[in-house]
Amino acid sequence: MIPDIPTISANLSDPAPEFPWPNGASCAVFPAFDVDAETAWLQYDFKNVDRLVTMSFGAYEERVGIPKILDYLRAEEIKATFYIPGWVVDAHPKMCESIVKGGHEVGHHGYLHKRPDPADFAEDKEEIDKALDSLKRVLGVTPVGYRAPSGENYHELLGYLRDRGILYSSSFRDDIRPYRHKLRDGSRGPVELPVNVSFDDWLYGLSQRFSPRPMFPKEHVLSIWNGELEQTREWGGLVSMVMHPQVTGRPMRLGILRDFITRARSYGDVWIATGQEIAAHYIEQERAAGL
Fold first, then answer.
1. What are the contacts of 215-221 at 24+ separation with CB within 8 A?
2. Is residue 2 part of a domain?
3. Contact status, residue 159 vs residue 116, Cβ threshold 8 Å
4. How many angstroms separate the Cα of 289 from the Cα of each of 18, 20, 187?
5. Average pLDDT, the chain
6. Is residue 125 part of a domain?
7. What is the pLDDT of residue 38?
8. What are phi and psi of 145, to 5 degrees?
9. Which residues form the domain of 280?
10. Residue 277: inside a domain, yes or no?
């Protein structure tokens, strides 16, 4: 028997308004990293805590990935956004402090990278609050941005995030421009900076751990990224990236990011900005339009 499924859209928000980008830019590129470290592997099976080679994938971020990425961003004078689970802040405080010292934005990414689920609202609220405590206690940061662990969210949690001071989310896949969430109770939720899944490096560089699919070579990834950028620029959209230091922090993968940013800058009209900057611009445009 086919089950009854509510005919309610997953997203009640109106189509994204066509607000202009600042300073005449044609589009925006949002370089963002999910600093999952070992939580990326603990979420699959907590027994991995004693599987040292599996855990070493995550440990690469503190030993090599983050330092190399920060060196590159510093050299190119780029500010990025780093979404960090609270557990990672507690387990790797020096690594996380180096991100803050680099002048980068730190966003909320859960506590133990638990995937949000409507059936776990009480537990998910605890994850939100525990991570907020870690970010404030260790880093002195009160985040305004949130990226959902494992890319999932729901109306009640969006409302709770808003009430806890989160101004924007970067998790959904349903647009190429920022928009404002509208919740089921009719209230306004956070601004959304939607993700283009083509810019999730995990799909190209680390999927073979659990999948027979091979890694993608540099030429293939750059072809996809540059093609998406070219068309997004023509459409006036936003390129929200989902990079992981245990992937893009690898030698050849960091070269892909370097070449992509070089291409983006070559246009001369691409705004490279943090999530906080993009969300603030959207909110400013909303107010100007009386929305």
1. 218/252, 218/255, 218/256, 218/259, 221/256
2. no
3. no
4. 11, 12, 19
5. 91
6. yes
7. 84
8. -120, 150
9. 30-288
10. yes
- pLDDT by residue (tens digit) across 168-223? 999 999 999 999 999 999 999 999 999 999 999 988 887 556 666 678 999 999 99
* Residue 21 pLDDT grade (very low, low, confident, very high; cuts 50, 70, 90): very high
CATH code of the domain in which 63 resides: 3.20.20.370
Cα dihedral sign for 61, 64, 70, 76? negative
Residue 55 lies in a domain: yes
In the structure encoding, which two tokens stand for residue 282, read together? 């959207």
Neighbour-count burial for 79-95, b at 16+ CB within 10 Å, e otherwise: bbbbbbbbbbbbbbeeb
Q: Are 177 and 268 in contact (CB under 8 A)?
A: no
User: What sign does the CA torsion over 288, 178, 277, 189 have?
Assistant: positive
User: Based on the structure, what is the number of domains in the chain?
Assistant: 1
Q: State pLDDT tens for residues 209-223.
A: 666 667 899 999 999
- Tokens at 138, concatenated: 């260790």
